[in-house]
Amino acid sequence: MLRDMSKTVWICVALLFTIGTAGWIYIASDSNTTDTCTAEKYQTDCFIQKVEQFTKTGDINGALAYAIEIIAPESRNSLHMSMHVIGRAAYLTSRSRDSAMAILPNDAFTDDGHLIYDGFQHGVLQALFVEKGENTSVHTLIKESCGSYWIEENNPRGPSPQRTGLGCFHGVGHALMALYKNDVEKSVEVCTTLPYAWMQERCGYGVFMEASYAFYPSYTEHAMHAEHNTSESSMKNVCINASALKEVCALFVGHSYLMSHANNYAGAFSTCKEMSEDLATECDIYLAEVIFPGMTHDTEKLISACATAGSSQERCLLWVAHGLHNGYGGPEGRKIDFCAVVPKDVTKKCENFLSASTT
Known about the structure:
- By secondary structure, this protein is an all-alpha fold.
- It is built from 21 helices and no strands.
- It has helices spanning 7-17, 44-55, 60-74, 76-94, 97-101, 114-132, 138-146, 161-164, 166-179, 184-191, 197-213, 219-222, 236-240, 246-250, 253-260, 265-272, 277-295, 299-307, 313-325, 330-334, 344-357.
- The chain starts with 6 loop residues before the first helix and ends with a helix.
């Protein structure tokens, strides 16, 4: 990792290294910078505490600068939760969604920027829903946040996905969990009333992602609602008992396990396999495609993580390659020819898998 760089270069490095998973996990870093948080075995708490030093004084721009210049190059996984904190503070400072979002640069939600700033929007919506939810209907809040459900341009990917599409309804899921104090069923119930299936799916994605965060040991310190989940080792039972969107929920089971079992990939895969076969497959693939590429570019570590997957090891390798190729490890991850470093008996399958998925 680069050291002692100027602020301008750090920003460029941040933009290169932060296009990865929107999730975050409690893991040790692969690299070092001059910031004191990088000396911590587990960095997320330290980074968030630094961010809060800015937000508590109302210095939202300072918090954003720290997140982009220091956290982003060091840990994409820590960045997302830090952005939640900054977004909440931005709303509580301005008491206006539009004013809070206006702090961000104009290109914040382009293809090269949105995974840096998505967490900021989630935090803004969380604070807005908590403040107004008692006196305003939840559907009014959703429409005010994401636009009318029925306008022609309201579709998953355009023309403004963060305002009317995938990103905004993902944020709504996080916001519902804040409003309902992590009541998953109540939040999912609202998601299922949205008029389009893609809206329901993205809303559920935010709900279940937030539910996975509750397994993080310091969750209560950094969230504005509910408590750390200490009664289970993962959200497996949440998904098994979910009344709707079970397949979306299953994505986060292994992720939730890693929240409180740092780097225990074998345990995460084992937890996935405790569900039905179809849900276990969703869980396995999410770990491989999204979580692993977002945590490191070290191919040996990625291969070692997949080696803990047991009978699904080969599938893990294929989906790691797919995740890197599709940007879950950022632009630098896209440059990795993962198929060239997997075991030789998997190389051709890996190449064919990527070819089939891109045609």
